[in-house]
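Researcher: We're teaching a course module on how sequence relates to structure. For the next exercise, students receive a sequence and then see the predicted structure as tokens, so they can try to spot secondary structure elements on their own. Here is the exercise chain.
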Amino acid sequence: MITEITYNSSYKYKGRSMSFKDMFKMSKYYSAYAQGLESIKEEVFKKLQDNTKATGANAVVGIKIDMEPLANSSTIIVYITGKAVKVA
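Model: And here is the predicted structure for the students to work with:
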């Protein structure tokens, strides 16, 4: 079993960090949240890929992804778990 975790707490909107005022503009907030989530997912998949190669496996099956925002925070945590296998 391989498990990776990553988190991010710096939402950005069009490449810029969001101001406190921007947090109340829902379209900017949702856009920044979606972009932040995508970048976190890419990062955790890259970690999973690197860890899989380090174990000598060449594939991962049964992948489970869990995304969780921390209460009273702008932090998103992404967990990923799977079974590393060697496919001939």
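Model: If you want an answer key for the exercise: The two ends are 19 Å apart (CA to CA). The first strand starts at residue 2 and ends at 8.
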